Amino acid sequence: MTSALPTSKAVLLTATKLNKTVHVGDQSLSIIKDVDIHVNAGEFVVIMGKSGSGKSTLLGLLAALDYPDSGDVELAGQTLSRLNEDALAVIRQRDMGFVFQSFHLLPTLTVAENIAFPLDIARRPDAARVDELIEAVDLGHRRHSLPNQLSGGEQQRTAVARALVSRPKIVFADEPTGNLDEQNANQVMQLLLDLRQKTGSALVVVTHDSALADMADRVITMHDGRIVS
Ligand SMILES: Nc1ncnc2c1ncn2[C@@H]1O[C@H](COP(=O)(O)OP(=O)(O)OP(=O)(O)O)[C@@H](O)[C@H]1O
Ligand SMILES: [Mg+2]
Predict the structure, then answer these.
(1) Which ligand places an atom closest to the C-alpha of 208?
(2) Which of these, 128, 171, 184, 209, could form a disulfide with 153 (CB 3.0-4.6 Å)?
């Protein structure tokens, strides 16, 4: 397996016996079943599996965007389920980056403002870092553009820069190339990998792209709410 970064063996994230049930009408559906998973510092992990197998749900639990019914997620020694919403918000801002299939940029902010956003809400503005990221994703000529003035590839490059700007410990990406053509998909993925190498962030990517899986340190396959390999 190719690893651009010499991954340290230190465990960064550990999830233990995660379970999640959703209620649809009078039915209870178990959608995550006894999932154990760990991610090492700097590691690139890909999660694959059929549609509906629970990949996005699991990513949401790992990123503390959603609560498990039972089980724990520990990030850098902190048990996320024991933290209140304010403490979790701090961890999301400081230690986590996110990239979504549908970009999720703030529509009223420019490219530069979107990239700066994580630093600004953490009250750690850093114009030099924002400029560095804008150049890294090759959007210098679009820095004052609004998201609706950008192509899909440009929007996702903005989202990648935003995800990495605060040098998070871990970046979660849910089908980051799912809405892009092959050329833009390759470019966005390469940028994500390059920036992750520079900042030393771990990267957890849900994808259907086997080319991407080939680049990962480890591939996890889900089936029906469980990890099967
Ligand atoms: N809030 C919810 N209410 C009801 N069912 C849900 C809810 N969230 C997820 N599910 C169901 O849980 C299962 C797992 O969903 P999830 O979105 O995690 O799958 P996925 O592996 O990400 O699929 P895809 O590849 O299509 O994105 C699916 O059967 C889905 O319909
Ligand atoms: Mg999904």
Answers:
(1) 1
(2) 184
Share of the chain above pLDDT 90, in %: 91
Distance CA 87, CA 152 (A): 33
The pLDDT of residue 3 is 47
Nearest CA among 224, 227, 229 for reference residue 31: 224
- How far is it, in rounded angstroms, from Cα 62 to Cα 175? 16
Of all protein residues, whose CA lies closest to atom 17 belonging to ligand 1?
56
**Closest atom of ligand 1 relative to the 225 alpha carbon:** 14
CA-angle at 125, arms to 123 and 130, nearest 5°: 140
Q: Hey, where are the domains in the chain?
A: 11-227
pLDDT digits (tens, 9 = 90+) for 133-148: 999 999 999 999 999 9
**109 CA from centroid of ligand 1 (Å):** 31
Work out whether the CA dihedral 66, 70, 73, 78 comes out positive or negative: positive
Best CA proximity match to 99, nearest among 42, 170, 39: 170
Q: What is the CATH T-level fold of the domain 11-227, as seen in this structure?
A: Rossmann fold (3.40.50)
